């Protein structure tokens, strides 16, 4: 039986990473933070001077993840979801939190 693939998405600071790591530790599923993956594998397509950050090469991210996603059992953590193939995920969770809580979390980063 194929293990499920799960996408955790939402605004930065809502708890995607915390939840993803906890789910992975309790379920045995593999946790992948797309931001970390992109940094480790240099999956970028330039640099945005205005926002002072690298530009994610979405096609390369999809290519990098495709085999693992076909095997199943993956928890993916990313703040967006529009470029991932729908067929990859069995369920998608969009995390949210109160704006006051979010502000406090982001202020400490």
Automatic annotation (TrEMBL):
Organism the protein comes from: Pongo abelii (Sumatran orangutan)
Catalyzed reaction equations: AMP + ATP = 2 ADP
Heme listed as a keyword: no
Primary localization: nucleus
GO CC annotations on file: cytoplasm; nucleus
Upper lineage: Eukaryota, Metazoa, Chordata, Craniata, Vertebrata
Highest taxon listed in the record's lineage: Eukaryota
Keyword field: ATP-binding, Cytoplasm, Kinase, Nucleotide-binding, Nucleus, Ribosome biogenesis, rRNA processing, Transferase
Name by which UniProt lists this protein: AK6 isoform 5
């Amino acid at each position: 039986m194929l293990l499920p693939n799960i996408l955790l998405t939402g605004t930065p600071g809502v708890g995607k990473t915390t939840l993803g790591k906890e789910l992975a530790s309790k379920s045995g599923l593999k946790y992948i933070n797309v931001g970390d993956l992109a940094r480790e594998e240099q999956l970028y397509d330039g640099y945005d001077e205005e926002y002072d950050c690298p530009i994610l090469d979405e096609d390369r991210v999809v290519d990098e993840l495709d085999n693992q996603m076909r095997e199943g059992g993956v928890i993916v953590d990313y703040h967006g979801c529009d470029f991932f193939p729908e067929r990859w995920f069995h369920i998608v969770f969009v995390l949210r939190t109160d704006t006051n809580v979010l502000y406090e979390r982001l202020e400490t980063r």
